[in-house]
From TrEMBL:
Organism of this sequence: Streptomyces bugieae
Transmembrane regions listed in the UniProt entry: none
InterPro entries: Thiolase (IPR002155), Thiolase-like (IPR016039), Thiolase_C_2 (IPR055140)
Domain (Thiolase C-terminal) ranges: 247-396
UniProt-listed PANTHER family: ACETYL-COA C-ACETYLTRANSFERASE, NON-SPECIFIC LIPID-TRANSFER PROTEIN-LIKE 2
SUPFAM superfamilies: Thiolase-like
Name by which UniProt lists this protein: Acetyl-CoA acetyltransferase
Amino acid sequence: MPSPASGPRSGNRKVAVAGVALSDCGRVDEATPYALHAQAARRALADSGLDRSVIDGFASAGLGTLAPVEVAEYLGLRPTWVDSTSVGGATWEVMAAHAADAIAAGHADAVLLVYGSTARADIKARRRTANLSFGARGPLQFEVPYGHTLIAKYAMAARRHMHQYGTTPEQLAQIAVQARANAAANPDALYRDPITVDDVLAGPMIADPFTKLHCCIRSDGGCAVLLVAEDHVPDLAKPPVWVLGSGTAVSHTTMSEWDDFTVSPAAVSGRLAFERAGVRPSEIDLAQIYDAFTYMTLVTLEDLGFCAKGEGGAFVEKGRLLRDGALPVNTDGGGLAACHPGMRGLFLLVEAVRQLRGEAGPNRQVHRPDGTLPHLAVASGTGGWFCSSGTVVLGRE
């Protein structure tokens, strides 16, 4: 393999998304997680039009004892810049922020972010069981013995928002209904049949107020994103999508240390990302938001500034989140309908880039009111039980 590029690099370079791709997703019974990583990486590289020899940075998490060393070895890469940050669902937006900073500073020229998981297939084949907690050591030892599971923490936060602001189960259900409607036109989505608010409310209760359809699906799948310095843009196969700004934040792990159950760390990461990008929430054409549960979408919309605190319930009504709504959200169907193989944050970036490029396809592509392609998108990932957040603002020229 050719050695990574060497020599002096200039600082403060612009950073572009050069290539994005999904691996096979949904039901993938025969592939290993490593194979999904490789498939997504090859497809993203092909999408970029660049040779693999340009890759000198690599970011991965969630697989292997020495992630991302094992994955890089599997892919035949020898990076000189590496990131293995793992903060749950926010991992990939945080990694993208790190990679963009490294490229801008001249520490790397081309960074590949890649993820793959067979979460669904592993359970079906009894290679693993569903987990009820993230562990019982450290601060978590004071919560786990009482059955305080991941979903229970989200349910408590949702209940607090309902108590404080009058948010209703029907409003939360609207988020699931619109996600499924967006998935209907996505051939890669695992669930595409329409659902109604009554369907959501009538489902089996998982953790009050969440019924089954309030919760993300479990699927297999992977994806990859290649970020490059502006120097590579003339060689790209497609017009670049630029990383305009990013922000990261963490807040708590112990629920007793969470200042306000109705505020997520996206309130900080979003503000930083928009300020650094030099744009306002009102200028954003579409949003890709981590949606492990419907409440996550609602509170993130508030915290990113798309509506005031407490007004998320009213905001998500009347089809605002649909592809042709006032603010298209999770246009691929999100984790509630399209795919959710684990840490889904990288899928948000893939979908945002495809929409900005105009590649989403018939009946799925977002357009501005004047009929032109979207100019600005935001991807916001959440990790843990609102413990961490990463937000990235993307734009095209």
